[in-house]
Amino acid sequence: MIEIAVHKKLIGSSGPMKLDLALKLAEKSFVALAGESGSGKTTLLRILAGLEKAEGKINVSGKAWLERGKSLPPQEREIGYVFQDYALFDNMTVEKNLLFVRKDRALAKHLLELTELSKMKGRYPATLSGGQKQRVALCRALMNHPKILLMDEPLSALDPSMRTRLQQDILKLHKEFGTTTLMVSHDPSEIYRLADRVILLDHGTIKQDGSPKEVLLKVKGSQKFSLTGELLEIIKADVIHIAIIAIGQQIVEVVLDEEESRLFKAGDTVQVSTKAFAPTISLTGSTSHL
Amino acid sequence: MNRIPATITDIKAHDGITVISFAAMGQPMRMMALEIDSTLEVGSQVLLGVKASNIALAKNPVGPMSISNRLDAAIEHISNGKLLSSVKFRLGDTLIESIITLDSSHRMNLQRGDSIVALIKSSELSILEKL
Question: What digits encode the pLDDT tens for the residues A199-220?
Answer without folding.
Answer: 999 989 999 999 998 888 877 7
